[in-house]
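can u do me a favor
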């Protein structure tokens, strides 16, 4: 999980999916955004995993639309 939540790694994945406008990748894009959001909520407290929260906030600030968070994402 540490590798997946590293800022550089997740930014590369986001770049690949976000910059691909093919209709066939829309479901992959939506799933990746949902995972980023979920991981950001879950791991933002962990210093080693904060990169995911940084990527999430960067995407939010740039106007990226995320799917509605699940109930599990909103639990503390």
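np, heres the sequence
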């Amino acid at each position: 999980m540490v590798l997946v939540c590293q800022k550089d790694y997740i930014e590369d994945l986001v770049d690949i999916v976000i910059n691909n406008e093919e209709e066939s990748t829309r479901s992959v894009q939506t799933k990746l955004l949902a995972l980023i959001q979920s991981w950001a909520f879950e791991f933002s407290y962990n210093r080693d995993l904060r990169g995911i929260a940084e990527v999430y906030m960067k995407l939010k600030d740039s106007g990226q639309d995320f799917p509605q968070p699940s109930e599990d994402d909103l639990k503390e």
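The chain has a mean pLDDT of 81. hope that helps!!
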